[in-house]
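Title: [Solved] Chemotaxis protein CheW 3D structure

Original question kept below for reference.
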Amino acid sequence: MSQYCTFTLDRHLFGVPVSSVQEVLRAQGLTRVPLAHEDIAGLLNLRGQIVTSLELRSRLGLEPRDEGAPSVNVVVKTPDGGVVSLVVDEIGDVLEPSRDSFETPPDTVPTTIRDLVTQVCKLDDHLMLLLDTERAVTPGGTS
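Solution (posted by the thread starter after getting help):
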């Protein structure tokens, strides 16, 4: 069985493999980047390493977070060995669902979200969307 780090965005529950998560941080001060793609929230200094912070709400086509609303940074590893911070609404639990609870995303999942989700997992009271972090960290397009 695999474990998934979960987080919420606009009442949607997402999961990423625990193995792809470097760390989870409370909201961090970001340095805005002029002329950057709208999905880029800014840059953060992570113990001397400059990390791109991606606004996942924008990337998934969701409504912007209310001004002053809390957020969390989920720092995930990228395929090229770097890291990217995903700005999410709230961190959840680490879940270990059974393999038979996964299936392909249904048509009821909005297209902008379905394009970045590999599978869905039926839980007792939620549907967990498994985020394709490789596609999600590619601003402005899918790989």
